[in-house]
Specification:
alpha/beta; eleven-stranded mixed sheet; 23% helix
Length: 586
């Protein structure tokens, strides 16, 4: 028997007449298609069809996740006058608790912030009021084995990690985003099972390598793109099972080692020259697979691994965690997932099933329009809730069930009121929709949305997003500063005195400091000191990734149409369909 008879009756009436059609996005004004496969999901997930296109839905979710390594000092609401490191600044209208206090169930309980639902007011306004009163985590993290890794967000099972986000099962990783099962690496983006690596993007199972992208099972290499099972290669593209190659030229071991010995990558100038040389070589000689998929059947998207029946999905990987192997199956319009099943519109998600419009869900079931939910089931329109069952419009709850706006109800009371609220939201045309951009906890330019869907201030504000003016140098640091030109070109010329000064970013003018661990890493691997801020470097890595969007292009070789994430106006021109790519490269 249904727990929400009014809602189910109203939703069935809507869905029974729903046919494939084209509609106009209420956010961007562009047309998008509602197809039969989407409609099947709406029936399964018990939601109406969306009012916005997949791109705008993705933007809303991503704008609720501040994971691009921007941190502020903000007063902790539990300790007046004490400021802690936070993803929010003092101007943000939301309260925070330092993470240790937030997770302590013995000192505070989110249920104390409960309020009675007022049917005379829109539910979303009541939810937003609640979000402004209930304290949030200073740093959005899962409280699971975080050891000496204070400057991390979206994290679990870490040791000695620094300035990293969306990271799990890692040790000694600095400046990483979307990192799994990795260690002893710096400046990495979307990697798994890597070790002793630097400046790596979209790679798996690589060791002791630098400046590599879209590569797997490579070691002791520099400047690679789309190389697999390669060792001791330099400046190479589209190689398989190779060793001692220099800019795709096969060399004898001694000749290769001689060439490498003549290249001093400890010099910033030399390294930059080879970065440019490699980029030119890549776009002049390289071939680009329209989309990257591996062991994925009946699936459409990019960077898919071990997927089945996935559509409009980007960056989906399988992973073995606690003796369980998680794959992705039957997922639509989603990004950055591990172990998702029967889900739609989920981002940074998994494992989980039967969820819709969720960002940051870990071990969840039947969650709708929510943010940062862990080990929970039957959660809707809720934020930062853990180990909860059947909660609607809640924030900051732990180990609770049958709560609405953080107020406790009996099971029968809960379902009766939820039925009323959901039916009204359905009538208003907002049920299933994620919160508008204006209600994000974070500034747009601090969020995942800015990394993948960048906007300038005017465009962001026009969409309702919040934006913070840039900090001045005096706000950030009062210590001695060095310009990029004053930083030694070669790592061997850097003394420990560098730890006591700030380097002014050559692009943004934002000062940053080098940590002792970082300096040791650069010295050990002969890497010159960076002269760009870690966040600037991260945004450059994001810019090297293809957007989460598909275009139709003609394969350069066979001329047949193929879907690709390579922008038609981008640098990559030699784009091949899967069949032609395999003939050309394998």
């Amino acid at each position: 028997m249904t727990k929400t008879p009014q809602f189910d009756k109203a939703l069935d009436e809507i869905l029974k007449n729903l046919k494939p059609h084209t509609r106009t996005c209420q956010q961007c004004g562009k047309d998008f298609d509602i197809v039969s496969s989407d409609i099947n999901f709406y029936h399964m997930l018990r939601v109406p069809s969306p009012q916005e296109c997949p791109q705008c839905r993705m933007r809303k979710r991503m704008a609720m996740m501040a994971n691009i390594l921007q941190f502020y000092k903000k007063e902790c609401a539990a300790h007046k006058g004490e400021k802690v490191i936070s993803q929010m600044d003092d101007a943000t209208p939301y309260k925070i608790y330092d993470n240790n206090y937030w997770w302590n169930v013995d000192v505070w309980d989110g249920i104390t912030y409960g309020r009675t639902y007022d049917p005379s007011r829109p539910f979303i306004k009541q939810l937003v009021d609640l979000l402004r009163n209930v304290p949030h985590m200073a740093l959005a993290r899962y409280n699971k084995k975080i050891i000496n890794s204070e400057y991390t967000v979206g994290s679990l099972d870490l040791k000695n990690c620094y300035l990293s986000a969306t990271i799990g099962i890692a040790e000694n990783v600095n400046y990483g985003v979307w990192v799994v099962n990795s260690r002893d690496s710096f400046d990495v983006l979307r990697v798994d099972h890597i070790e002793n690596c630097y400046d790596v993007i979209d790679c798996s199972r690589c060791y002791n390598s630098q400046h590599i992208q879209n590569s797997t099972n490579c070691l002791d290499s520099y400047f690679l793109f789309d190389c697999h099972n390669c060792q001791k290669c330099f400046g190479c593209i589209n190689l398989r099972n190779k060793k001692y190659c220099f800019f795709n030229e096969q060399l004898a071991q001694r000749a290769y080692e001689s060439k490498l010995a003549a290249i001093d990558l400890g010099s910033r100038k030399v390294r930059q020259e080879y970065l440019k040389k490699f980029k030119d070589f890549l776009y002049q000689r390289g071939v680009f697979r329209a989309v990257y998929t591996r062991n994925s059947s009946s699936s459409v998207g990019d960077h898919l691994r071990d997927c089945k029946n996935c559509f409009g999905v980007f960056n989906a990987m399988s992973v073995k965690f606690l003796l369980t192997f998680y794959k992705n199956e039957n997922v639509r319009w989603s990004q950055d997932i591990i172990g998702a099943t029967d889900d739609m519109d989920v981002t940074i998600f998994g494992p989980g099933e039967l969820c819709y419009n969720v960002i940051e869900g870990l071990s969840v079931n039947k969650v709708i329009a929510s943010y940062f939910i862990g080990d929970s089931m039957g959660i809707e329109y809720s934020f930062e809730c853990f180990d909860c069952r059947y909660c609607f419009g809640c924030s900051g709850l732990k180990k609770k069930k049958y709560c609405i706006l953080n107020k406790q109800y009996t099971e029968n009371e809960y379902w009766k009121l939820v039925d009323e609220i959901k039916t009204r939201m359905l009538e208003e045309g907002i049920y299933g929709e994620f919160l508008p951009l204006e209600h994000s906890l974070f500034y747009y330019h601090d969020t995942y949305a800015q990394a993948m869907m960048p906007l300038n201030k005017e465009s962001a504000v026009s969409l309702g997003a919040r934006w913070r003016e840039k900090q001045t140098l005096s706000e950030i640091s009062n210590i001695q500063k060095l310009t990029a030109g004053e930083v030694p070109d070669h790592i061997k010329d850097v003394t420990d005195d560098i730890l006591n000064v700030a380097i002014v970013c050559s692009e943004t003018r934002k000062p940053f400091q080098i940590t002792k661990k970082e300096l040791e890493f650069y010295r050990h691997y002969s890497i010159p000191l960076p002269v760009k801020h870690s966040q600037t470097r991260l945004m450059h890595r994001f810019a090297k990734k293809n957007p989460y969007q598909l275009w139709i292009q003609n394969c350069t070789k066979c001329k047949k149409q193929t879907q690709t994430t390579y922008n038609p106006n981008g640098l990559a021109k030699n784009i091949l369909c899967k069949a032609c790519y395999l003939k050309e490269v394998i």
